[in-house]
Amino acid sequence: MILKDIKKLVIKLCILISPILIWIFILIQIDPFNYFNYSNIISKETEYKTARKLNSILYNTLSFKNTPTQNIIIGDSRIKRLSVNEIAKISGDEYFILHSNAAKLNEIIDLFWLSAKYSNLENVILGINFNLFNEYAYSNRVHEIERMIANPLMYIFNGNVLEVTTKAIISHFSKTEIPNISRNIMLKRELNGKSFKDKKIWWQYNISTVAKNQYSKYKYPKKLIPRLKEVNEYCIENNINLTLLNVPHHQEFRQRVTDFNLIDEENRFKEEIKEIGTVIDYDFPNSITNCRHCFTDPIHTNDSVSLIMVKEIFNDSLVIGKKL
Amino acid sequence: MLFNSLHFLAFFPIVIIVYFIIPHKFRWILLLAASYYFYMCWKVDYIILILISTLIDYLCSNKMSKIESKAKRKKWLYLSLISNLGILFGFKYFNFFSENIQLIFNQYNILYEVPFFNALLPVGISFYTFQTLSYTIDVYNNKTQAQKHLGVFAVYVSFFPQLVAGPIERSNHLLPQFFEKHEFSYSRVKSGLQKMLWGFYKKIVIADNLAILVDGVYNNIDNYSGIALIVATIFFTFQIYCDFSGYSDIAIGSARVMGFELRENFKRPYFSKSIQEFWQRWHITLSSWFKDYLYIPLGGNRVIKWKWYYNIIITFLLSGLWHGANWTFIIWGGLHGSYLILAIIFKTRKNNISEKIKSFSPILNRLLDVSITFILVAFAWIFFRANNLTDALYVLNNIMPELSEYSNVGTQFRGIGLYLNDILKCLLLIILLIGFSTYERSGNVWNKLQKKSKLIRWVLYYFLIYGLLFLAPHSTINNFIYFQF
Description:
The complex is a heterodimer. Chain A is an alpha/beta fold. Chain A has helices at 2-30, 44-54, 56-66, 84-91, 105-118, 141-150, 152-156, 159-174, 181-190, 199-215, 224-237, 251-259, 263-274, 303-314; strands at 71-75, 95-99, 123-127, 241-246, 278-281, 295-297, 300-301, 322-323.
């Protein structure tokens, strides 16, 4: 009787855990983030359409870990259009753009320390802007990534990895792009049912809602400057060239800083980062910030402007931008 | 060792397998070794405190059992009380009293440095101390026999499922179970595992997700006001329930797998219609301890009215102090005591109003009672959760929201890195909890599901396992809140 009971329990427990084992097997095979870096079942294109798009911070961090370079640009989505090919042509150096959508300054600093673990860095550019310099602009994804890297179970049993893997499988077999449904629903609700693909509507949304979200609640982030100073000290000790890049925003978006009475805070931000290291500033009234066509939306420059910035920065001949 | 750790995931099956393999007469040795190992995983040295409590209470109870005269037995009872409460006071309350004495000295410009005791608070000290105290008091009162078997008594004091956060057991309930031979039973093991599964879900998925927002707000309280404080307080109300009842479920479930039945600690407390009822459903083993060993010996309600109020308030102030050496806990206890006294004072008026509402709509009456009780309990939790009295007062001064805040609830928590989606996820988890609790109203959920089709049960298992694996926040492994007590 007891043996029968034990047998019954063991069988049921095996049935219970079998989907978990199947999931582990599938994930190791698909591995859209190249965590195990073992299988090539899905194409790079599918990875870009799913993993990089839906969780750029994890995808890019693991990419850097798998193929580290000595030169790196770390920032949010605003730096992703800086062309590594063009940089290589000009400087001869191979750069990696470690960007993450909606990265916060504390995460950019965390990413610096993480990348320093995997590479003997030589040149580092951190993309930091005033809208990230706010106690309320906070996110904490890098620590989770660090824990994931240290413990494969964290990666295997991660809700986002499950979602991305499912989408990668569907995308791979159906050859179609899987929309980010929850993001689309949220944007549709915020845009009162209008499409975010309409540039005019998207532009206005950024000026009204995004700017309000970023500037309406401000508190000086007292921990960030000391953390940036630590980065700078590390760079000096290890002969790493550190540059802080302040990318341009369209003047309408810049105007919102004035609307929310944050001009003094912005000036203080620029004064303080100036003390940390070389700062290249594009976010002041200039021919880029005045030009609407130069932007895909009020905070993201288009490819040609990004190219101008690359040429100016890497040829060391600033025309529009300036050193603070 | 934490229940919600990989360490426990390996430890528990090994103990269970060995437990059922070895003969019954050796099982107490296994349980004792496992319990001490479980405790020593946290801090090796502090097992000495459990050993001291065990030996003193064993000695005192056995001495008492040999003495007829109650008066002569008293000295052994005092020895037990003084040594147990002395250890508890030294480790848990000494610094709190020193701090307050120092404050008074400073106030009167008395130049004297009050000594402080630099030691970590032993995990679960309040739980096992109260469990052993109840035993010696029961032996003194001849309500239970003194345990002759030192080993079994040591297991009773340190039984690992309930060692660090209860349920606080009574000797006449738990001790005899160590002498019963527990055979492996599929249905009992299944029932235990089901209880553990739901306990893990409540802790790891619901409580830990809510904790991100609650900790973010309450640990940076100056950054928040209005609606953010309301949301954080309501979330904490559910977090602490899921955290603590989750622990109790895991404890009861893991003991059940081995054949032991521990006392229930929670009975859907947020569905209580009054504060009195709340205390019959919340942390039942502690409230019944205070009732049996403090409130009733003080005279309970069989005294004149003011003495009755005094008994209530003393019981609740000490219950608050039991939770932690901080004024916030004492005020929390005091608030609950005051609620009860006010309920007694206004009982007639309240009943009259209730009757009128009931005649109009009984459901509305019940809903109002439950809602008012919930709001009072949630309000008191502000003091329980706040890191200090200043923070609690800040919450009280800033909790009223401005109308403009309602339009941008989703951006309130950007400072913690949370967005509207995260808040909605937490709300869904709370709704799931309420749904489960509502279904539980008419009896044990798992027993009811036993009568449903297999498919429903398996879908539920996978739903819970999916949550445990994929919805748990991975950024940190959170301790159980009640570990600190």
